[in-house]
Structure formats: C-alpha cells, structure tokens
Amino acid sequence: MKNLKSYLLVFSVAFILRLVWIFITGSHVHPQEWEYEVVATNLLNGKGFIYTHLNTVYFSIVQPLYPFFCAVIYFVSRHSFLILELIQAAIASITCVTVFNIAEIIFSNRKVAIISAMLLTFHPGIIAYTAKLHPLVLDSFFISLVALSFLRLSSNFSTRNQIFAGLMSGLCILTRSTIVLFLPIMVAWFFYKSPYIKKKIIFGFGLILLVSSIIILPWIIRNYMVYKQFVFIQTTTGEVFWRGNNINATGSAYRINGKTVLESSSPEFLKKLYSLDEMGQNKLFREEAFNFIKDHPFKSVSLFIKKNYYFWWFSPQSGMEYPKLYLLIYKALYSVVILFGILGIIFALSSKISNIRESTLLILLLFLSISFAQSLFYVEGRHRWAIEPLMLIFTANGIINIKNMVKR
C-alpha cells in the first residue's frame, strides 16, 4: 500500500504537469507534426502505410508502432489531437512510476526513488515532447520497461520474467530499433554474471527471442509482401546511416550553416537519388556510406567518437530551431544532471552491496549499447532523452550521497 500511494502520487503530479503544458501551449489545437502524423492519417484514409519522401513513395518510412498507435486513437476519437496527447501524458507519467520502481530495485532506497521520479516529472524536454506528435514518449517508456524487465530477470530468471523481457524488447524494437544491440550484450552478461546453469540461460533467451520475434514478425512479413525481399523494420536505414557517414557529415542531420547534410550534397548525387524508387534510394545511401567508410577510415572513426560525445553532451547544431536562451538554460540544467549522475554511478559501482554494483553495470550496458548503436547513424539531442529517465536515477543517487557526505 505504501508503494501504491507513492506510485499514485508520482503519476498524478506528472500527469497534471503535462496536462497544464498541453493546454498552455495549445498543442492540442496545432501540434508539432512529423512524418508519423501523415502516415497515421494515410492509414485512416485507407491509403496504407505510405509517405512521400525524396520524390518517391515510401512504404516503410519509419518504425511502425507509433503511427499505428496514433491511427488507432484517431479512429476511436475522430482524429482528436487532445485525446492522443492525453494518452501520451498518461504514458509519460507511467514512465515516471517505472523509474521510481527501477530506482528502488537498484538501491532499495526510497529517497533515491522519489528524487529520480521527481527529476523526471519536472524534466522540461520530456514534458515538451508529451505535447508533440513524436514517438519519444513511447521510446522512453519501452526502454525503461526493457531495463526493468532485465533487472527483474537478473534476480529471478523465471519464465514469466522471460516472457515479459521478450514482450518489452519486441515492442521497443518497433519504436526504437537501436535497442537491438542491447539484447546480445545481455546474453553475454547473463553467461558471465548469472549463477544459473548455462542450459537454463540458453533456453531462457531462446524464449525471449521467440516472444520478441512474434511481436515483430507481422511487420517483417508485411514488408516481404510489399518488397519481395527481407526488410527488417524500415527502408530509411540506409539514409540515416548515410547522414552520419559521408563526406559532408557532421554527426548531426545538419551542418553548422543550418543546411541539412542532404542539401549540402553534390547536384550529381541528388539527381541520381531523385531518379530512384524507395529501395533504390536505400541501396544508394547504403553504398555511399560504406564507400565513405572504406575510403576514409580514420575520419569515420573520428566521426563515430564525435557522435558518441554529442550523444552525451551537445553538438554545435544543438538548439538551432529554438531561441539561444533555451539552450543555455537547458545546458545549465543538464550540467547538474550529468555531474551528479557521474558521481551517482561512481558511488553505486563502489558500493559494498553487490546488487547495487551489478544492477548499475546492467543499466550502464544499456546506455552504452544505445549510444554506440545511435552513433553508427547520426545523433540529435532527443536521442539521449530516450534514456535520460534512467540517467536521472544515478543523478538522484549522486545528490543523496553528496548530501550525506556534507551532513557528516
């Protein structure tokens, strides 16, 4: 009952804050849209999962979960932005509760859990994205649940927890595919750290793979029926890989002059690109990116390192679409978050309690896998926000430990 009251309090405060933001900004009347909205509208109008991009029609422009999520809500609510944003606010508030739960599992410390949840509750960027037609809310929600599922699995390798981990992993892949790298890392982690016999681990991860495959298989089958060849999730993988790996690449989708990397390409490349269909464009982008890596290996490695740095800090292109003051304020806030977060990780790894050390390492593996996977492509600030809810747990731990040291 004590936990239930805490969960309800965290959920209520988070939901009310997001509700206030939705009505203050008027986003329920004129929300900020991306391609997901067009795809969802096309689904409702019977045109299918299509989007016109780069002078041709794409049938798998983005990960499918968010557009279908929007389409279902629109179908029931007669295309109400308000209903969609209210549901997003509820999901974001549940993420706050999930972070509370994860913090309790790692540290068994109610103060750390409460501060973690409150930091996420008041996180300005994540509040703002609640009122946008963008999948960030689902990204952070499912990544948090993936973390929760593997933390539970590490303490209890039961069939129920295996099914839960597979379910969350499958759903997360359908909205944020960079989680894929985390799964083989977890296999190695459990082989190395788990006390369970190897046979049980193999069968357990076989079940996790089976459940997650069942979740994503319908989309893969649909793609095969459309393209007559294997397409994992989306056909823009080549494009986003090329954005971060070409002669004009900066690590971001933009150059410092405000132009996109694509706009900075040669006229010959653009002419060839616009003459191709969806699969042809994907192939061209992929070939150009691999040719760049082959011809410029040192620059490619330098870009990869730079992109990891941008993932955890800021690129020169950060905040280009917003007033400079917003970026300065957020940099100041994030500096505090990352400083106490690093301290919180150090305190956790030096703890005498093995559960705290091992749980912290598991979450760090999640951070690094997503950072590395994203840095293979290109990096924007919102990519970090998908895992920032989990970062705030260590920020809270750093705050509590520093407070206790000062008190002593």
Provide structural commentary.
It is a single chain. This protein is mainly α and 408 residues long. It has one domain (2-402). It is 72% helix and 1% strand. It has 18 helices and two strands. It has helices at 2-25, 35-44, 65-77, 81-107, 110-121, 124-130, 136-155, 159-173, 182-193, 198-227, 237-243, 267-274, 278-295, 297-312, 324-349, 354-375, 381-385, 388-407; strands at residues 51-53, 56-58. A two-stranded antiparallel ribbon has the order 1-2. Helix 1 (2-25) runs antiparallel to helix 4 (81-107) and helix 4 (81-107) crosses helix 18 (388-407). The longest helix has 30 residues, at 198-227. The radius of gyration is 22 Å and the shape is globular. The chain starts with a helix and ends with a helix. The model has no long low-confidence stretch (mean pLDDT 95).
Which short descriptors sum up this protein?
mainly alpha; two-stranded antiparallel sheet; 2 strands; 408 residues
Topology diagram in text:
Layout: H1 2-25, H2 35-44, E1 51-53, E2 56-58, H3 65-77, H4 81-107, H5 110-121, H6 124-130, H7 136-155, H8 159-173, H9 182-193, H10 198-227, H11 237-243, H12 267-274, H13 278-295, H14 297-312, H15 324-349, H16 354-375, H17 381-385, H18 388-407
Antiparallel strand pairs: 1-2
Helix pairs in contact: 1-4, 1-5, 2-3, 4-5, 4-7, 4-18, 5-18, 7-8, 7-16, 8-10, 9-16, 11-13, 13-14, 14-16, 15-18
